[in-house]
């Protein structure tokens, strides 16, 4: 199969690669660039696990070919924080138990990033809408909404992020059991 | 067992943030598809388009010639080296990783291809020609009972599709029914659904020809328990198969034992002569990963007295097991653990007819069969209340086992350890403002709005014991009685703890839980504790998560190991401080003299001595500071020979009360949640935050089961809902805005710290609660909810029929 050479910027780094035209963007990111934080759940565009930002807009990487995005700028979960220096949204998910198996989390973070990039103070209804095309099988979504709200709060400096040096798993706030 | 009061714990019972999270949040989780070996090829599988057919011929020549294809394997070729897959049924049901001669459901593997990458492997699949001769298709479980001839899936087990039939009687059922004032009867249907974690099953295998040994990465769970059975299938010794766990992107039971994917991938690696990755795509998973849940039709009856006392329950259940029977009818063993619910029901008759049909086979799904009997019992309790004109809360209270009656033996022989069912119900009623909602409901009805309140009080048995797998059998093939869990703890020379789990992460919080318990027991700071997982080469007995057992069992194992470590540390410190061991205590990461805390040694100092200064230790103390501990099920007894008593097998008994408030739109049939309260009693809580997470997540899955999800087959055995466009998993819009979780703690007398399991409860409570709420909302129309899922379409139809009547 004829291959094409493409140049794609992923997480601020430029990559030049030669790929077959049918190479899915999800496979390109995961297996050609070894950015395995983006996951694949159904490969038919429903579950949302593979969501990345293409030129700032969320998209299913399993429904896109890599060659479609020659010249584009793509953001994946690896563009956010690291385990010792997390992004406020990631801190929000950690504090509010926004994940269990963690498989849907990178995609949830990316749609949250897209939302908060354009709307730094979203309402709960807006957050709900933003994640509504992404499945999660573990949490029942409620703590994901809580987590994004918490991330927004942290991003807006309403609470100091946990110092990077302190990696001890701290006690989270009590969940609002009876609200 | 610890006798500390709850508030004396430093770490147990606290909402500790999960130690698993930083790597998962930053895309560094290392799931199965993130494993990459040098020179690795990828596999794809050609699957049967027929539900039931003979394979007449397979032509793979064009596929083999495609550039990039490494090998093509038919079922016959695979079976030359790899035997049937593991099966717990007796007699076993023969299943191969790739079908041999005959396919029995749509999606069954027919040919596997290994190629340089999956794209080429899938191209090759399109080049394979298979000739089939269709056989009669069996999709209706009730009709399957009467199948003969070509319609029989496994003729070697006899000319029938009945896989197993038996009646188990416990107590004076006939007498209790004869003496009943009323008999309440319902025909109930529980639909086929599945755990459907967002990550499918997969494996990466390599075969070292020099060593004759397989190494396989897997996202399955029970590998340290029954992984050796994969070696048996592969025709090698268990020492020649090392299974390395990866974390799993969810399971909910569906990855309990991913033996088929492991065995298939190993088979392909051996044939291909290079490492092979096989990751199911979603359709592979929905059609053929052996993970469908229960699919049952019940004719169920309750013997009730006029005052509401429930004397007996009896039922005939037809369970559609699909094409194979990997776990036997263990799901019905499970159900026998709590088939009388939280009630003092005197006798039980369970009549089971398990049938084969041309569908994907059942596996495990959150509840493992007991979620279905919860639905049956609670539907019958509501029906009894209706027929007696009794309040649904009152009939429950009337029949509750009382706190002073524990430990309580139910008719099947299982024992409930402890509970306080009125306390759970009271907490739930107070949280939901039950009286207030009843007033709102009455007001809404006057406006023509249909609000309903459903209340269920149900059991969540936890910590399974393996007898449940086989006691339904007249002659068990392998009557195992062990289901242990192990731990390894090593304190390094600087005083930090390495903790080794012998079963994997599959979406729960094992690292956080183990960290909290080790921190509690050894007074080591959580940041000084690291958790890892063994492979099978190094693993001790570990049954793994499932049946809400992991926290209880790991806590037990940690209790044993830390006791040994504590004794050793005290002996070393006593020796070096020249103090009697009796006068020492372990406090805040140091061993100190009681009453004179300034005289002490830190754990780090003791560890350094233990590792490197043998001549400073007491003569009979060996170097090092480590312990392993195998913890067996805390309370299991054998079933008796005639099965009139199944013994004790699931005694750690949790409880829950779910109260959803819904509004039904009678024009569209849509159900909206106005409120939802779930109060659970899981004994002593280790981490209320993660427990609440399980409750909410399980509730969301229960909502899926109750309202949306169904593996629906047409008359030709085609799975109509194989894709996520058709199999409807709840999104954020389908779940209640706020599932309010409450906790009551009735510690178990049989477990470390009094912990009970809590992994499955949400899904074991939500379906009957939602059914009750919908039925309550539509009471003016007289609609009964006897079958799930209650889709909007079905409900609208029922409403129309009721309005027309």
Low-confidence runs of at least 5 consecutive residues of chain B: none
Structural class of chain A: alpha+beta
Low-confidence stretches of chain A: 161-167
Q: Going across the biggest sheet of chain A, name each strand in turn.
A: 2-1-5-3-4
Q: What's the helix-strand series of chain A? A: EEHEEEHHHH
Shape of chain A: elongated
Rg for CA atoms of chain B: 27 Å
Helical content band of chain B: 25-40%
Largest interface: A-B, 70 and 73 residues
Task: Work out the helicity level of chain A.
Answer: 25-40%
Which whole number gives the mean pLDDT of chain B? 97
Give the number of helices of chain A.
Answer: 5
Class by SSE composition of chain B = alpha+beta
Could you give a short account of the major beta sheet of chain B?
Answer: 7 strands, mixed
Explain what you see.
The complex is a heterodimer of chains A (179) and B (805). In chain A, 29% of the residues lie in helices and 14% in strands. With 179 residues, chain A is of the alpha+beta class. Chain A has a 5-stranded mixed sheet, with helices on both faces. Residues 161-167 of chain A have low confidence and may be disordered. By secondary structure, chain B is an alpha+beta fold. Helices cover 28% and strands 23% of the residues of chain B. Chain B has 21 helices and 29 strands. In chain B, strand 23 and strand 24 (590-593) form a beta hairpin. The N and C termini of chain B lie far apart (61 Å). The mean pLDDT of chain B is 97.
Short description:
The complex is a heterodimer of chains A (179) and B (805). Chain A has 179 residues and is an alpha+beta fold.
Ordered list of secondary-structure elements with their pairings:
The complex is a heterodimer of chains A (179) and B (805).
Chain A: E1 4-10, E2 13-19, H1 25-32, E3 51-54, E4 57-60, E5 73-75, H2 88-95, H3 105-118, H4 124-131, H5 142-155
Parallel strand pairs in A: 1-5
Antiparallel strand pairs in A: 1-2, 3-4, 3-5
Helix pairs in contact in A: 2-5, 3-4
Chain B: H1 21-25, E1 41-47, E2 53-59, H2 61-65, E3 69-74, H3 75-79, E4 102-103, E5 109-115, H4 118-126, E6 129-134, H5 141-144, E7 162-170, H6 173-178, E8 182-190, E9 202-208, E10 213-218, H7 223-226, H8 228-234, E11 241-245, H9 259-272, E12 276-279, H10 282-288, E13 296-304, E14 310-320, H11 330-335, E15 347-355, H12 370-388, H13 392-399, E16 408-409, E17 415-416, H14 421-432, H15 434-446, E18 450-453, E19 456-462, E20 485-491, E21 497-501, H16 510-522, E22 529-533, H17 550-577, E23 584-587, E24 590-593, E25 596-602, H18 603-612, E26 626-631, E27 652-664, E28 671-681, H19 688-707, E29 739-743, H20 761-777, H21 792-804
Parallel strand pairs in B: 1-12, 10-11, 14-15, 21-22, 28-29
Antiparallel strand pairs in B: 1-5, 2-4, 2-6, 3-5, 7-15, 8-13, 9-10, 9-12, 13-14, 16-17, 18-27, 19-27, 20-21, 20-26, 23-24, 24-25, 27-28
Helix pairs in contact in B: 8-9, 12-13, 12-20, 14-15, 16-17, 19-20
């Amino acid at each position: 199969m004829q291959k094409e050479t493409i140049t794609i910027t992923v997480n601020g780094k430029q990559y030049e690669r030669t790929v077959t035209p049918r190479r899915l963007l999800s496979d390109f990111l995961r297996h050609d660039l070894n950015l395995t934080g983006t996951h694949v759940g159904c490969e038919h565009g429903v579950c949302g696990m593979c969501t990345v930002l293409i030129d700032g807009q969320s998209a299913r990487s399993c429904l896109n070919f890599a060659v479609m995005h020659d010249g584009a700028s793509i953001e994946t979960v690896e563009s956010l924080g690291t385990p010792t220096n997390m992004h406020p949204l990631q801190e929000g998910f950690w504090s509010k138990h926004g994940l269990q198996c963690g498989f849907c989390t990178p995609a949830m973070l990316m749609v949250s990033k897209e939302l908060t990039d354009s709307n730094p103070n979203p309402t709960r209804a807006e957050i709900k809408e933003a994640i509504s095309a992404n499945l999660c099988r573990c949490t029942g979504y409620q703590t994901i909404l809580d987590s994004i709200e918490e991330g927004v709060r942290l991003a807006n400096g309403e609470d100091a992020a946990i110092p990077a040096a302190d990696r001890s798993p701290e006690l989270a706030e009590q969940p609002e059991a009876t609200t | 067992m610890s006798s500390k009061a709850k508030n004396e714990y430093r770490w147990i019972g606290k909402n500790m943030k999960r130690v698993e999270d930083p790597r998962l949040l930053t895309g560094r989780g290392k799931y199965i598809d993130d494993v990459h070996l040098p020179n690795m090829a990828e596999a794809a599988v050609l699957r049967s388009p027929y539900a039931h057919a003979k394979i007449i011929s397979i032509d793979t020549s064009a596929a083999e010639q495609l550039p990039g294809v490494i090998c093509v394997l038919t079922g016959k070729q695979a079976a030359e080296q790899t035997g049937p897959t593991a099966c717990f049924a007796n007699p076993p049901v023969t299943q191969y990783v790739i079908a041999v001669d005959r396919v029995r459901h749509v999606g069954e593997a027919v040919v596997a291809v290994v190629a340089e990458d999956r794209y080429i492997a899938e191209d090759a699949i399109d080049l394979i020609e298979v000739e089939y001769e269709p056989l009669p298709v069996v999709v209706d479980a009730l009709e399957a009972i009467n199948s003969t001839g070509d319609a029989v899936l496994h003729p070697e087990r006899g000319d029938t599709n009945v896989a197993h039939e038996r009646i188990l009687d416990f107590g004076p059922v006939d007498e209790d029914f004869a003496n009943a004032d009323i008999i309440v009867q319902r025909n109930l249907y529980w639909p086929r659904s599945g755990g459907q974690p967002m990550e499918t099953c997969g494996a990466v295998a390599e075969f070292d020809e020099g060593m004759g040994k397989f190494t396989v990465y897997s996202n399955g769970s029970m590998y340290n328990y029954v992984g050796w059975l994969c070696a048996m299938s592969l025709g090698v010794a268990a020492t020649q198969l090392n299974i390395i766990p990866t974390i799993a992107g969810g399971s909910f039971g569906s990855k309990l034992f991913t033996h088929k994917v492991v065995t298939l991938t190993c088979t392909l690696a051996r044939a291909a002569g290079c490492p092979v990755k096989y990751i199911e795509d979603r359709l592979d998973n929905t059609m053929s990963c052996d993970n469908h849940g229960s699919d049952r039709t019940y004719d169920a009856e309750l013997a009730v007295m006029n005052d509401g006392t429930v004397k007996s329950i009896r039922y005939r259940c037809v369970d559609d097991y699909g094409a194979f029977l990997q776990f036997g009818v263990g799901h019905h063993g499970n159900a026998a653990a709590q088939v009388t619910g939280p009630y003092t029901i005197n006798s039980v008759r369970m009549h089971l007819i398990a049938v084969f049909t041309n569908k994907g086979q059942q596996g495990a799904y959150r509840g493992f069969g007991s979620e279905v009997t919860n639905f049956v019992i609670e539907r019958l309790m509501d029906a009894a209340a209706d027929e007696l004109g009794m309040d649904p809360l009152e009939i429950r209270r009337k029949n509750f086992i009382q706190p002073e009656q524990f430990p309580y033996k139910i008719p099947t022989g299982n024992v409930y350890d402890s509970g306080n069912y009125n306390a759970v119900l009271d907490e739930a009623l107070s949280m939901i403002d039950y009286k207030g909602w009843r007033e709102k409901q009455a007001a809404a009805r006057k406006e023509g709005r249909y609000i309903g309140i459903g209340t269920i009080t149900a059991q969540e048995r936890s910590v399974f014991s393996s007898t449940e797998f086989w006691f339904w059998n007249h002659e068990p093939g392998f009557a195992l009685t062990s289901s242990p869990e192990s731990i390894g703890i090593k304190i390094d020379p600087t005083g930090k703890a390495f903790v080794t789990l012998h079963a994997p992460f599959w979406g729960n919080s094992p690292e956080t839980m183990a960290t909290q318990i080790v921190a509690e027991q050894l007074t080591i700071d959580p940041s000084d504790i690291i958790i890892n997982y063994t492979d099978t080469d190094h693993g001790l007995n570990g049954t793994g998560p499932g049946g809400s057992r992991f926290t209880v069992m790991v806590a037990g194992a940690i209790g044993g190991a830390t006791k040994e470590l504590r004794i050793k540390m005290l002996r070393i410190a006593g020796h070096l401080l020249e103090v009697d061991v009796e006068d020492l205590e372990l406090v805040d990461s140091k061993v100190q003299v009681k009453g004179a805390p300034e005289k002490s040694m830190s754990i780090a100092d003791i560890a350094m001595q233990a590792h490197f200064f043998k001549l400073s230790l007491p003569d009979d103390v060996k170097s090092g500071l480590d312990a392993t501990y195998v913890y067996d099920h805390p309370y299991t007894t054998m079933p008796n020979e005639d099965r009139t008593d199944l013994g004790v097998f699931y005694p750690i008994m949790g409880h829950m009360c779910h109260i959803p408030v819904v509004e039904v739109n009678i024009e569209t049939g849509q159900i909206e949640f106005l409120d939802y309260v779930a109060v659970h009693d899981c004994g002593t809580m280790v981490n209320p935050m993660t427990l609440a997470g399980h409750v909410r997540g399980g509730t969301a899955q229960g909502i899926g089961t109750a309202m949306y999800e169904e593996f629906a087959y047409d008359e030709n055995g085609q799975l109509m809902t194989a894709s996520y466009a058709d199999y409807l998993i709840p999104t954020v819009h389908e779940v209640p805005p706020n599932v309010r979780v409450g906790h009551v703690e009735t510690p178990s007398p049989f477990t470390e710290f009094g912990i009970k399991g809590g992994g499955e409860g949400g899904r074991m409570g939500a379906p009957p609660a939602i059914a009750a709420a919908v039925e309550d909302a539509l009471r003016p129309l007289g609609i009964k909810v006897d079958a799930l899922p209650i889709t909007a379409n079905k409900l609208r139809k029922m409403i129309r029929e009721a309005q027309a009547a």
